[in-house]
Specification:
Number of strands: 15
Number of domains: 3
Distance between the termini: 75 Å
Largest sheet: 9 strands, mixed
Strand content: 15-25%
Radius of gyration: 31 Å
Shape: elongated
Number of helices: 12
Helix content: 25-40%
Order of helices and strands: HEEHHEHHEEHHEHHHEEEEEEEHEEH
Length: 395
């Protein structure tokens, strides 16, 4: 007959305890004394073996080997009894009831004593709140190493590597440790980042909300999550049967740029493809989105000029494309920016582009030089100040 669920749980727990005890030579029925500050704790060999090897199991194993088992001395450690009470509950198999307000030292002390299962939770202080972080939450590509793994890695390493010269055998007072704290970041944004890292979706309210999430992702060095949060759109073009990705020029990373060197593109140029680092497995045809009123199209010269940071980003993009294509600077055609004074409302061939989506193509000209050609996919533009003023909003 099938066993009830409770019986299966008890059986699994017993098997786990037997496996843990096999790594420790302490007799399971014998009781060992540990004096922590002014309080005496008595733990059985089974409890000490549940998270062995540790500082405690090694100490009493050495005592059993060198002396008569009936004369095993008490282990004295000058630490806080209230803190060790949580460690004793852990060794006895009691469920972890520590709240987020429990100081991190209550968890870190067990780690210093070599308790392996105490390493699974990290505590992190964010402004006035404290958060438990599972260590496997950073398993996604690009999310490690980060602020947390680098900050806690030292505390979760062996005492010999964290504190050089520290002798575990004679350890009576482990060095004090504190949880990393970042008081100048938003606890609400951090909670949403942890929510996303756990695999849940999050409703991004507006551009300011997205910018705050991205800013803290960069601060904590969560590169994979950052790439998942950037503004983008991936779709299949039914006319070309190719995937296309729309990305803002400010979010393009050099490591994600690729070329589509198919036979069909040789006559028109090399299409640029893009895959978000750590996120996209396959690259899609790149469509750049450029906004902020930083683009001017000269209809007479058939050239696009940029202003401010957009110009700097485009120049950097041209340099990256040249390196990807193994082109020297002499083979690349620069992007000149010609400023012209406008007088009156006469049509002088300039179109101010508010927001535009462009398909970049690397093309070779008649002079043998390569230039980055932008094919307009969709633009929101105006040709005069009158049209621009119509779109102004009152404060």
């Amino acid at each position: 007959p099938a066993l009830p669920t409770s019986s299966l749980l008890i059986q699994a727990t017993a098997m786990s305890s037997q496996q843990d005890a096999s790594a420790c030579s302490l007799p399971t029925e014998k009781v060992f004394s540990i004096q922590i500050g002014s309080e005496l704790f008595r733990l059985s060999g089974a409890s000490l073996a549940s998270d062995a090897p540790s500082y405690f199991s090694r100490f009493f194993e050495e005592q059993m080997r060198l002396t008569d088992p009936s004369n095993v001395r008490t282990l004295y450690i000058d630490r806080d009894p209230a803190t060790f009470r949580e460690i004793a509950r852990h060794l006895q198999g009691t469920a972890d009831t520590r709240a987020a307000s429990v100081p991190w030292i209550n968890q870190g002390q067990g780690i210093i004593f070599g308790l392996k299962t105490e390493r699974n939770l990290s505590n992190f202080s964010q402004t006035r709140s404290s958060t438990h972080i599972p260590r496997d939450i950073f398993s996604s590509p690009g999310d490690s190493p980060n602020f947390f793994t680098l900050g806690f890695g030292a505390f979760f390493a062996s005492p010999s590597s964290v504190f050089p010269g520290l002798d575990r055998v004679g350890l009576l007072r482990p060095p004090s440790i504190v949880a990393p704290s970042v008081p100048n970041r938003s606890a609400e944004i951090f909670a949403e980042i942890i929510h996303l890292l756990r695999g849940y979706t999050l409703h991004i309210r507006d551009d300011d909300h997205r910018a705050a999430l991205l800013r803290d992702c960069r601060y904590f060095h969560l590169r994979g999550l950052e790439q998942r949060l950037i503004r983008h759109h991936i779709s299949l073009n039914p006319f070309t049967q190719r995937l296309e990705i729309i990305v803002g020029i400010e979010d393009v990373r050099p490591s994600g740029l690729q070329f589509a060197n198919g036979s069909s593109e040789k006559a028109t140029g090399a299409l640029l493809k893009y895959a978000r680092p750590f996120v996209d497995e396959t690259a899609s045809d790149l469509i750049l989105e450029i906004g902020e009123d930083r683009t001017v199209f000269n209809r007479q010269m058939q050239r696009v000029n940029f202003f401010g940071q957009t110009k700097t980003r485009m120049e950097s993009l041209v340099q990256v494309v040249g390196k990807k294509f193994n082109l020297s600077e002499s083979q690349l055609e620069s992007l000149p920016l010609k400023k012209r004074q406008r007088t009156g409302e006469a049509d002088d061939g300039l179109v101010m582009i508010k927001t535009g989506q462009w398909r970049p193509i690397l093309q070779q000209g008649e002079n043998g030089k390569y230039s980055l050609v932008l094919l307009a996919v969709k633009v929101d533009a105006y040709t005069s100040q009158r049209h621009r003023n119509r779109e102004r909003n009152f404060l």
